[in-house]
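Support reply, case 0932

Customer input (verbatim):
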Amino acid sequence: MSETGPRVVDLTALPGVRCPCGIARRAFADHPAFPGTVHLTQIDRSAKTHYHKTHTEVYVVLECDQDAAIELDGVLHPLRPKTSVLIPPGTRHRAVGQMQVLIVCQPEFDPADEHFD
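Our regenerated output:
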């Protein structure tokens, strides 16, 4: 398999990294043909409000508590499985409740682009 060719990744087998939302398992940061990353993230109830100056994120909710929501610039939006949320740069956001989400981040995720008020 070439460095730029197709790649299959078991997201559950990747090491978990602590993030403002919970634990993220990040893939494809080292793949030059994809200008982003894909994260399988287990969000817990201690998720913190944050924003990104350059990242755009798309959340796809895989599983969530019945009362789960996402807060976008101070407004709560209820979530359910198979809901998708587009989060442009500058949007203050946090997930509320426990959930598992798939996050597509562009450009490639950089922890230096996590900002808190």
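We compared this against your earlier run and they match. Two observations from our side: The chain is about 0% helix and 40% strand. The CA atoms of residues 50 and 81 lie 23 Å apart. Please reopen the case if you see a mismatch on your end.
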